[in-house]
């Protein structure tokens, strides 16, 4: 069986020629995809640097000053994204909406801890107020991501979170 499962070759070509052509085209597509990925990453990176000025490195350094805040920052991003990925893979019937609601509550707790830590760090002059403001903007974006995840879960499962 030819290696090219992504493209179809002409039927009039011989099997060996078709296999080599398909392999060649497959690798060209692979290299092209990698080039586009790297270009996209470069573009996003430049846009982030332009948006934050020279503060991005300082902000990320502040967000990961110790292992605890680094863990919390990672959790704010990874938990909601895992739920979205499982929803997008046509496995949404396996998604437990209660798990999403629990993740939202955990995320809210993490957010509150990070906000408190940020206030302490600004008061202790670990970094300046402007950096703390950027830090809070990032936390706010994480909160928006979490709310989006819960909205998607509610929409896909037709189950609403019961607010107390």
Automatic annotation (TrEMBL):
Listed GO CC annotations: plasma membrane
Give the GO molecular function terms.
sodium:phosphate symporter activity
What InterPro entries would the database entry show?
Answer: Na/Pi_transpt, PhoU-like_sf
Where, per UniProt, does this protein localize? Cell membrane
The UniProt entry lists the main location of this chain as membrane
- List membrane-spanning regions: none
Tell me what this protein is called.
Answer: Na+-dependent phosphate transporter
Organism for this UniProt entry? Phocaeicola vulgatus PC510
């Amino acid at each position: 069986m030819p290696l090219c499962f992504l493209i179809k070759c002409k039927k009039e070509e011989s099997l060996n020629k078709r296999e080599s052509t398909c392999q060649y085209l497959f690798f060209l597509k692979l290299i092209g995809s990698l080039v586009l990925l790297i270009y996209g990453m470069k573009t996003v990176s430049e846009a982030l640097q332009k948006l934050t000025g020279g503060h991005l490195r300082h902000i990320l350094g502040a967000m990961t000053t110790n292992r605890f805040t680094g863990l919390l920052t990672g959790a704010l991003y990874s938990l909601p994204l895992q739920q979205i990925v499982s929803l997008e893979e046509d496995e949404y019937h396996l998604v437990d909406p209660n798990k999403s609601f629990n993740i939202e509550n955990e995320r809210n707790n993490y957010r509150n801890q990070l906000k408190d830590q940020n206030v302490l760090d600004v008061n202790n002059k670990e970094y300046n107020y402007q950096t703390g403001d950027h830090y809070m903007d990032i936390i706010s974006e994480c909160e928006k991501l979490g709310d989006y995840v819960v909205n998607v879960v509610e929409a896909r499962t037709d189950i609403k979170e019961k607010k107390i």
